[in-house]
Amino acid sequence: MEGILESIEFRGKQKDNGSWIYGFYIVDEKGASILYRHPLDGSLDRKEVYPETVNQYIRSKDKNNKKIYQGDILKYDIHPSLKDKVGDDELLHQVVWAEHGFYLWRWRSEDMNPINPSGITESFEIVGNIHDNPELL
To answer: What is the pLDDT of residues 49-103, one digit of tens each?
Structure first.
């Protein structure tokens, strides 16, 4: 089980306090839960989460070395000389799952072609997610 926990990571909002928890997602007779390593002793523990908040880590990090998850809202770090020509809301992208993997969809744009985040995420910064910051969209 240890290899699985290290290779696939999810996050979800806990039902008991609304905070985010990170680990392996499971659904069974007890409902939707995140299985995680307890920070004090390393033992496995589980917390119930709201299933609609569960998002997968896309195995990429932003320019601040923060892990990027499905549902995150990223802002493109545009060159300073172009900032006055483009509105902030035009630089926002949502991380989505499409047919064959994760993509970045640019919001408020006629260009609806998805961007594959592999290798380019260092130009983006996480500014929120669809669950905590829907007003960004």
So the answer is: 999 999 999 888 999 999 999 999 998 876 666 666 655 556 788 888 877 777 7
What's phi and psi for 133, nearest 5 deg?
Answer: -135, 55
Q: Which amino acid is located at 99 in the chain?
A: E
Rounded distance between C-alpha atoms, residue 76 and residue 48, angstroms: 34
What distance in Å separates the CA atoms of residue 121 and residue 119, rounded to the nearest whole number?
Answer: 6
CATH architecture of the domain formed by 55-136: Roll (2.30)
Whole-angstrom distance, CA of residue 37 vs CA of residue 111? 41
pLDDT at residue number 116: 60
**Of 69, 68, 76, the residue nearest 106 (C-alpha):** 76
Q: Which residue has the tokens 């496995």?
A: 44
